[in-house]
Amino acid sequence: MKHMNSEVKEERTSNKKRIDLFLVPIVLIAAFLNLFKIWTDEYANAYYTAAVKSMLQSFHNFFYASFDPGGYVTIDKPPVVFWIQTISAKIFGFHGWSVILPQALAGIGSVLLLYVLIKRTFGVWAGRFAALAMALTPIVPAVSRTNNIDSMLVFTLLLATWMLFRAVRTVKFGWVLAAFAMIGVAFNMKMLQAYMVLPAFYVFYVVATKITWKKKIAFLTTATALMLAVSVSWAVVVDSTSADKRPYMGSSQTNSVLELAFGYNGINRLTGNTSVTGSSHKQPAQTEQQTASSETKQNNNSSADSSQSSNQRKSSFSQKMQAPGGGNQNGMFNTGNPGPFRLFQKGLSDQISWLLPFVIFSIVGLFAGVKFKGPYTAKQKESLFWLAWLLPVAVFFSIAGFFHQYYLIMLAPPIAAFAGAGAVALWSMYKQHNDWKSWLLPGGILTTAALQVYIMSPYVSSIGVAPIAGVGALGVILALVLAIRKQRKNSLTNYLGAAAMVVLLAMPAYWAMTPIIYGGNSMLPSAGPDSSSGMGGPPSTATNSKQSGFNGMQPPGSSSGNSSSNNQMQPPSGSSNSGQMQMPGGSSNNSQMPNSFSSKSSSSKRKSGGMNAEVNQKLLNYLTKNNTGEKYLFATTDSTSAAPYIIKTGKPVMAMGGFSGSDPILTVSKLKAMIKKGEVKYFYLSGMGKGGQSDVITWIKENSKEIPSSKWQSTSSSAQQGPSGNGTLYEITLK
């Protein structure tokens, strides 16, 4: 206990010291990478931005995280992060940057938290290196520059880690409760993903806390119970509320938060099972394609040649994109093929794995000489914590059936922690000439440089040969010189060690800047020379590298004059589950594509978001003019077409099937009742988002009046294009 008290006093004394001047530039780098030019992203992730617009309008929408102002359906995630975004938008006004700001600040906060966590036990230089590695991990700023959840999730988990470490140092039960309660809060950000850190929390508390086993079990049991209570608190309130008094729980099949948490946002991520259960949600791909084809023919502005070309592109696209985690060389969304070396494959390695070999050597050094039965030093205990965070998460991403590249931010804290702690530890072993341990530093430098050359090699056409050859040559030279000078102690050796760290961080730093240099994608954030595509992997073969995203898609009611262009890929109109694409809100059972919107480089605002982040003004004018008091401006199959109109007008737009169009929200009888009540009369239908709505859509077509396209369809080809394609506007009025 005296030892614990002395540690607390030491901590308080260190807190009174002046600011670490070396930390200042690290924080400035993080601020630049996370904040610079976020004001150019007008819509961000339009799916989530539309929800913030809706949540600003009423407490009902705010509490349930309603996607639309009418409170029809929620988004596919719990509300905590979006509560924060809504508060930010309330304070600063509704803008793309105001909903991004909380995540950008969280990214900076994570850098600071990691510095604090590592510095105390491993030393100030270890803290500095760890903070810098965190700031320069490419996927960290790529995600933090969007309104996706993951940056805030990682910050919250690091805050919980700080509480846990304090609980161990002070032996105070209150901090244990606070740490596990914070994980419960994180659960209400992204559900089961927050629980990935639990092995680290349990292992560390058991090993590091100097109390009896009886107390350990009692404290952990109580803390776990509190965590579970906090985790399900919102879910219990929502699920116990009558379904007719709240929005439908988006992306669930049973209108349940718990089903969403443990299915769609839980086990399905591991298994890759994103199919919709229930016969009412299965529709043969051929039938959907035929339906889409017939709808395309109804468009007066589409020629037979362009329709044929579009269908060919759809077929080609469907063949190339495989089911999550399998099939082609790069897997679904370039997440690679499951296996032990998945994190070293293209599309993932350049997001997170730049320092992994150095981390492996660091782990060997930090645990060298450790005996299973202990005793353990403070450094070994905390190293065990970071290892228990790193390994389970790495295993998950190595075998998971479905995830997006930006989920890899979960690996950033332990990798950065080991990079910082390991750099100091390996340097100390190198200087002390501890037999084989002294070879760990040059070995880590050499293998890490080799991996970085491998990571960059597919991008030679974008970045050139020089940086690849430079990193490889310098890495080899510095590793060899350090090996040769192993017995010499002078300042030159110190400079060589520092130079090696600079070389290993140089290309991650460049990669971390690519969302600023090349433009980012707020729907599927990733880093790299093709970061604007949001698809990761090697650069596109498109003529214009800044159009490497799937840009050839159209907002509702627009007609492109270049429908036959090879760069304008179209998704399949309703493919089978084995080839379906998924959007960053989560699993989707209908093909929907991201859109970089970066091709308008001259524009001061980047209408990002990967959805129809453009509004057809002619359609909007028609719907507004002919609205006779209906609650909804119009209804459409999914959130893709609805989001930009919600953002633009703040008026309710009904996404009948929720995010992807597959939610079983509506029945024909329910829709009839809504029409009779005067809640909706206009329906915009395209070939997207059929899912479980086939009966509803069939009924709409059979009982509606088709509105001539000349009254509402824009013929401008300058409008930014989105995934809905050319659809049909219908009107239904029932007496």
How would you portray this structure in words?
The chain is mostly helical and 735 residues long. The protein has 27 helices and five strands. The protein has a five-stranded mixed beta sheet, with helices on both faces. β1, α25 and β2 form a beta-alpha-beta unit. The longest helix has 27 residues, at 96-122. The N and C termini lie far apart (79 Å).
Roughly how many Å is the radius of gyration? 27 Å
Strand arrangement across the biggest beta sheet: 2-1-3-5-4
The rounded distance between the terminal residues' Cα atoms is 79 Å
State the secondary-structure class: mainly alpha
What is the general shape? globular
Number of strands: 5
**Per DSSP, what share of the residues sits in E-state strands of 2 or more residues?**
under 5%
Instruction: Please identify the oligomeric state.
Output: single chain
| Weakly predicted, low-confidence segments | 1-5, 276-330, 540-555, 557-603, 717-724
Largest sheet: 5 strands, mixed
Helical content band: 40-55%
How many distinct helices? 27
Average of the residue pLDDT scores: 81
Briefly, what is this?
The protein has helices at residues 2-15, 23-35, 46-55, 59-64, 80-92, 96-122, 124-136, 139-144, 150-170, 173-190, 198-208, 213-239, 257-271, 285-298, 304-320, 349-352, 356-366, 378-399, 412-432, 440-456, 460-463, 465-484, 491-517, 617-625, 639-649, 668-676, 694-702; strands at residues 635-636, 654-655, 682-685, 705-706, 728-731. The chain has 735 residues and is mostly helical. A five-stranded mixed β-sheet has the order 2-1-3-5-4, sandwiched between helices.
